[in-house]
Design a protein that fits this description.
Fe-S_hydro-lyase_TtdA-typ_cat; 10 strands; Class-I_Fumarase/Tartrate_DH; four-stranded mixed β-sheet; alpha/beta; globular
């Protein structure tokens, strides 16, 4: 049985955080450029110009692309044939400490509001997979968008059409708060917490990718069209693009429920992945 290199996991986590703090995810940067190219509104185009320029300056100079350096969210996929010689969660959190050394620390106790001082702990989701490798998906999640999250516990009689309406309404009610154009993650099914997990994991998809489920792919395109028709636009200044993408993940649920979670990213996706 192969032994996991937890020191390497720590190192790669730190490197990933340092990189994505300053470098917008490539498909997101390309989508912003396309939105700028298509925009008719001078005000919205100016906002998109600023977003694109900001991303380029951050990447060139090694500055954080946003002053909210976020909270680390990590999805760990651990092979069943892998021996863990220590605490895999501590290995990730040590990587977070190192990665955030030169970044703003925003994590604190929810009651006392005392800062932890190193942006730990990360929010870590763990899945067991086949093989003897560890893969990690890491996102720096800003809270201007996180605070706009919504969860709806529908009864089956309300149906999927009502779920679609509520997803659109969630973006409409968020308005300019999540720094649009947003990326919308949707979790369908499971339980309350499973729907929320799905909505967060959906945000790791690359913009421009297709959902492997034909019905969900069709729904994503429909929702994106309806959301862009809201006219919120870049930073709430109106225009063609209120969202860059809608991504949906689903999970079987109970016969008496239809959980729907909506989690948004701002215009700047800071997400990456690696395998060791």
């Amino acid at each position: 049985m192969k032994t996991a290199d937890l020191d390497l996991l720590t190192q790669k986590t730190a490197q990933a955080i340092e990189n994505i703090a300053c470098n917008m995810e490539a498909s997101c940067r390309a989508a912003l450029e396309e939105a700028r190219r298509r925009e008719d509104s001078p005000t919205a185009r100016f906002a998109l110009d600023v977003m694109c320029d900001n991303a380029d300056i951050a990447a060139k100079k090694g500055f954080p692309v946003c002053q909210d350096t976020g909270m680390a969210v990590v999805f760990l996929n651990i092979g069943r044939e892998l021996y863990l010689p220590g605490d895999v969660y501590e290995a990730v959190n040590e990587g977070v400490r190192r990665g955030y050394k030169q970044l703003r620390k925003s994590v604190l106790d929810p009651v006392t509001r005392v800062n932890t001082g190193d942006n730990t702990p990360a929010v870590i989701h763990t899945r067991l997979t086949d093989g003897d490798r560890i893969s990690a998906e890491i996102m720096l999640k800003g809270f201007g968008s996180e605070n706009m999250s919504k969860v709806f516990m529908l009864n089956p009689a309300q149906g999927f059409e009502e779920a679609k309406r509520l997803i659109i309404d969630a973006v409409a009610s968020a308005g300019s708060n999540p720094c649009p154009p947003v990326i919308v993650g949707v979790g369908l099914g499971g339980t309350l917490e499973k729907a929320c997990e799905l909505s967060k994991h959906a945000l790791f998809r690359k913009i421009g990718s297709s959902n492997p489920d034909p019905e969900l792919d069709k729904t994503e395109k429909y929702l994106l069209g309806e959301i862009n028709a809201l006219g919120i636009g870049a930073q709430g200044f109106g225009g063609r693009t209120s969202a860059l993408a809608v991504f949906i993940e689903k999970f079987p649920t109970h016969i008496s429920s239809l959980p729907v979670a909506v989690n948004m990213l701002c215009h700047c996706s800071r997400a990456t992945s690696f395998e060791i």
